[in-house]
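Quick sanity check, Plasmid pRiA4b Orf3-like domain-containing protein:
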Amino acid sequence: MTASGKRRHLSVVPDVPVIVRPSERRGRRRVAGYHLRIELDDVSPPIWRQFVVPSNLRLHEIHPIVQTIMGWQDSHLHSWVGGEPPASERYDMRESIDEGFADEDDELCEDAVRLDQVLAEPGEQLSYLYDFGDGWEHTIVLERIDADDSEPTVTCLAGARACPPEDCGGPGGYDDLLKVLATPSHPGHHDAGAWVGPGFAPESFGVDTVNRGLRLEAVIRDHPPVSDSKFAALLRRIPHQAAPHVFSLLEHAHLTDRLGDIREAQEAATFHLRWFLNRIGPDGITLTQAGYLPPAVVAEMRQELPGFDDWPATSNRESDQRPVHLLREYAKALGLARKYKGKLIRTKLGSATASDAGRLWAHLLDRLPLADEPIEREAGYLVLLTLAAGTTSVERRDVIAEGLAALGWQTSDGTIVGREEVFWLARPTISFLELTGAMVKGWVQRDQPMDPVWGRLFAKMVLSM
């Protein structure tokens, strides 16, 4: 009855199921070990892996793990699909969303979704799509949850068969490729073998090799470079499986840490240039008839600048004193000085930074590594990484060679860049670092890290730009 005494007609309202979308789940309160199985769809015999990850990782953190587990090279776009229809959702890369490649009606970013929001109970599945052209689809199944007190280490437990080569045409193309490789009489057998390379074995899988890659992946995840830096962009072009030594240095470089006296680093890194700019002065330095610095100025530089008196020649001619000549050339290359009517004069920037270590420091951070060619710049970045990580000279040469090879650089005869060539390729940056004292001279011979702390901080800051 209602308050007015009239009888109200009541009807039964049917239950309407509430659809909880995967990304709306709250996730687990405590981190658990997720035992997952991933299998490549539409490939026979199956290519699969079993692995363990922490439940609290976000999907963009799971992506490089999946790449390493499977053996892909991370050279294409990817996305995820979680849940069952009608509650399924697609999770895209931040890059895909920003560039407008994702569906405008369903723009959920992978970096906003935790794994335990899309996989909550054993048996639930998540799809991983890689290379939209070839169309590699993977099914990930949550097999078991370990809810003990320790956070699990990302580990591969088992697997079968090698990952297909990149860009082979998806499941159908891979099947055709395997048939050609297995048929020596096929007209395309030789070319197919040359394309996949001599090390490709379809039936091979090594769990130890995968776990070595996962340990590197953990270093990248725990000790990343500044995400929007030029160096980070360079690292994204290097497959970490091809350059393990390069990526292992991230753990020692601590690129996002700023430990050390920044003012001391600014003063030390800019000392030689500031001294030279002040010596040029507002009126400039009249050069010799041959276009060199006067002997008196050279003698003064050798006396006043640290390290300049170590050069073996006793002559005060600029052509005999390599450090003097290098400092002059670097001042010009950095836009701080120029030659004008028989004089060496300061540019506007040179005058503005002559007594301003902070501003000159910022200019150096923006201009380094020094290079005329792309390969010199990339070699310079690798030099700076070794300096930031405190490596020995022997390690430095190996790291640069490994990194350049992984980036695809080759010599004119088609061979990879070797340890013998790296000094010349990285020479512009190495010479500048040695000249300023950021790196100890004679790097090829040293077998102990001796570079100053401020030099390491300087390198970190350059790599953060």
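Posting the structure with no commentary besides this: The radius of gyration is 30 Å.
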